[in-house]
Amino acid sequence: MVRYVSSPVLTVRSAARAVVYTVLTSDVQQSWTVRTLQQALPQDKGVRLEAVRSVVYLLLADGLVEPVAGQRALTVRLTAAGAEFLGDVLASWSGPDPQHPSAARDRIDTSGVGDGEASAA
């Protein structure tokens, strides 16, 4: 179950959020700056630094990452609640991407179509 967050966009599936969440949850003890997190992302995904920064600040606002003291640049680490939240979100995204055309096709209600009965209009 995905917990309530003040930034609901954190639960909306996107390619950028998916790879950022995957990297963050790969090592929950790791400390990250925006730049080191972006550099750890798969290069073929083309996630821009600004997208990573936006995700980090949204996670920070909801207490899902916490600042690491004693660092000049903003450095964050995933909290226990953050690890659980991101794991739940990633698990909820494990199905087909709802934005993908084939997923939209799968959501179309075709009951009664092609069953040989004409509708009474």
From TrEMBL:
Region (Disordered) residue spans: 92-121
The organism's place on the tree of life at top rank: Bacteria
Protein name: Uncharacterized protein
Organism classification: Bacteria, Bacillati, Actinomycetota, Actinomycetes, Micromonosporales
